[in-house]
Amino acid sequence: MLAVESLRVTFRRDRAPPVEVLRGVSLTLERGATLGIVGESGSGKSVLALSVIGLLPRNARAEGRVLLDGTDLLTLSERGMRDVRGRRIGMIFQEPMTALNPAMRVGVQIAEGLRVRRGLSRGNARTEALRLLDRVQIPQAGRRIDSYPHEMSGGERQRVGIAIALALEPDLLIADEPTTALDVTVQAGILDILGDLVADLGLSLILISHDLGVIARLADRTLVMHRGAEIEQDATERVLRRPGHDYTRTLIDAMPRRARATLEAGRA
Ligand SMILES: Nc1ncnc2c1ncn2[C@@H]1O[C@H](COP(=O)(O)OP(=O)(O)OP(=O)(O)O)[C@@H](O)[C@H]1O
């Protein structure tokens, strides 16, 4: 469903030469599949995600093609891209607090997209918001629907972020470091939810993380990035068992001990 072809992104800077931060990256993603993108900070993972959803800053120039079911998103107008964003491609960010309005009850925030973009009545939008909160496993959703973001834990806020993305029924979700701000047990819960959504709803998922342990839990295929370029891209199991590059080996060595133990057990 998604094919990125030779994507180059350059940032213009005042009086300094432009910097190329993506240097010809290509990837493909099948419907219902999960692609992991891993690499250290600054390798270009977020810039790649922003290119796909058309949210690059104004000083950026993108070349290449980003094909969603054959349509090149880089050629769409801002208005055309607004239709794609949310409805076709949902985005989940690292820090859910920045994506949520602190002064609005979470149920209202989920319902807003349902009313404005899916045309649901106020009552139906609330019912659907409740169903979505259940879907992302917020306990006592009937009561929590009227909570404000600050009344929820970090993990619950991220679940609300996922519910907001799901509300528009996208067929592709991009999760950029969705668990980095959370502690390990909460992290596992969020990853389980994302895995269930892919399995139950047939969503495609791009999961971005600097942590190969996170990627290994969910991704069928993994793209390893370094300094804006692809290092390798293959079935996740292959990347983990037979890394084709020293850089990938460094990332495997940096995996938390527990994730590595699971991997070793799988190998034995
Ligand atoms: N608005 C911008 N203007 C100029 N350079 C930028 C801008 N945004 C990102 N960059 C540069 O692009 C490069 C890639 O950044 P990006 O955020 O994609 O990395 P990343 O792999 O997602 O890292 P992190 O995990 O820290 O977010 C970095 O060198 C960064 O400094």
Automatic annotation (TrEMBL):
Domain of life: Bacteria
Domain ABC transporter: 4-252
Pfam families documented for this protein: ABC_tran
Membrane topology type: Peripheral membrane protein
Signal peptide positions on this chain: none
Localization, UniProt: Cell inner membrane
Entry-linked SMART domains: AAA
Molecular function as annotated in GO: ATP binding; ATP hydrolysis activity
PROSITE patterns the UniProt entry points to: ABC_TRANSPORTER_1, ABC_TRANSPORTER_2
Keywords assigned by UniProt, alphabetized: ATP-binding, Cell membrane, Membrane, Nucleotide-binding, Transport
GO biological process, one term: transmembrane transport
InterPro entries referenced in this protein's UniProt entry, alphabetically: AAA+_ATPase, ABC_Ni/Peptide_Import, ABC_transporter-like_ATP-bd, ABC_transporter-like_CS, P-loop_NTPase
Any one Gene Ontology cellular component term annotated for this protein: plasma membrane
Family listed: Belongs to the ABC transporter superfamily.
Record protein name field: Oligopeptide/dipeptide ABC transporter ATP-binding protein
